[in-house]
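Question:
Write out your own:
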Amino acid sequence: MTGENKEILREIWEGRLPICFTLADDEVSALEQSEPLYLLVPRMSYLPLVTDKVYKHFIRAVDQDSVEEMWFEFEGQPLKWQYPIGALFDLYWGNNVLPWNVIVHFQKFPADEILKGGKEAAESHFMSCIKEADSLKHKCQVVHGMQKKDHKQLWLGLLNDKFDQFWSVNRRLMERINDESFRYVPFRLHQIDKPYLQDLIPTVKEDGSLGTFRDLLEVALPEIFNEDGQINSGYRIICQGIEIPQNTDLQWMSYHLSYPDNFLHVIVLTVT
């Protein structure tokens, strides 16, 4: 599979998640429990970019003297804001019903598990990822050739959920230079309660053949394969909410299924 498929890019961009935000019971100080807040949020975004309404909705119901940093958890697991929302959902949701029920906190920030951060921190993290991804793909040739206004357009396109604004710049980061494939595919492989994994996986192998999703998995997580070379039945591998065929071309995956940070976020789930 080669070449750009704009329809797929737009479908991925327009992915939405229904989330029910509820204030933690032990943080309610008002006489009446605040009503849950239901939002339809972009999978491609980050929690600090889409939760202004959440803050305004719940802040009046908590003791103002005890307010720290707003943070979120799902079934006891603090949610890392630096992961795209879609990746967080794929990692923790499992087979629960929708909407995704997320608990809102203003107290007892778990600093040993997650980082503090708002929109400025999210922008800094996002641009750092963009630069790291371009280093893997193009030795930073593209990002170093961009102007500050290009970086700002990327960020504003994500912040304001504007596909065309974002992709008019991002396309340059996804193009081949001198018709050469990416050196390595930027990816992060996530498992619950483990640090994410990265490795140097070329898009073109030494024999000249195209690298595939299976090649990535064999290098990054060889233990998921059984003696017959098949993925053990106890694992489910997803990216952008779907199970990707193992023979999928890595260059195509990187172009079409990466999040705005230019990384593939691959989720490895254990199933029973």
Q: What stands out?
A: The mean pLDDT is 93. The chain is about 35% helix and 15% strand. The first strand starts at residue 16 and ends at 23. Residues 119-138 form the longest helix (20 residues).
